[in-house]
Write a structure and sequence with these properties.
This protein is α/β, with parallel strands linked by helices and about 190 residues long. Helices cover about 20% and strands about 30% of the residues. The protein contains 3 helices and 9 strands. The strands form 2 sheets. The chain has a 6-stranded mixed beta sheet, sandwiched between helices. Inosinic acid binds next to β5 and α3.
Length: about 190
Amino acid sequence: MNESQKFPSSFISNQFVPYIKAEEIDQITSSLAEQINQDYKGEEVVLIGILKGSFVFMSDLIKKIHGPLVYIDFVELESIERTKENKGTIRLSYDININISNKNVLIVEEIIDTGRALKFFMDHIKLSKPKSIEIVTLFDKAYQRTVDIKPKYIGKKIQNEFIVGHGLDLENYGRNVNDIYYLKYPN
Ligand code: IMP
Ligand code: MG
């Protein structure tokens, strides 16, 4: 099956332009895991994935981690009443169940845009007094940032394209596509 067939026919197929191959994502993930293995060697770390988009990257990443002892958990953040003009408010719709007090926490994101969702979550988990908090993100739209969020581990910096695939969606489509495509708006 052609991967692009996973997009619905209501989306014009040539709007999706091939951008990053799964092989490149695999190399990026390996290099991130290598740094994490070094930095947390012999320690414990709690990986917290931000649902839903991060679950594919989380799965790739965890298989390459062998330095530290790893625990995993997930949260879901929702942006409510978000429109083109208004960024809306962030809501935590599903919280972690693991105790992170005095633990090393590594937040796992697939992409950071304005940083607002992560800022909200950082403020939230700081209340549990973890030993350390760092962020690993597969993609970073660093030029879009409106709040002060600095991921320690960055896979690839991209411009302001809207990308889909490998866990990232457009209206829930495309998460199951292996490669990354960018959305080309018809002019
Ligand atoms: P932020 O709060 O503006 O940083 O929003 C980050 C979240 O928006 C990400 O975790 C994604 O869920 C979503 N997002 C941002 N850019 C993209 C994109 O290009 N494709 C798919 N989802 C995106
Ligand atoms: Mg996300």
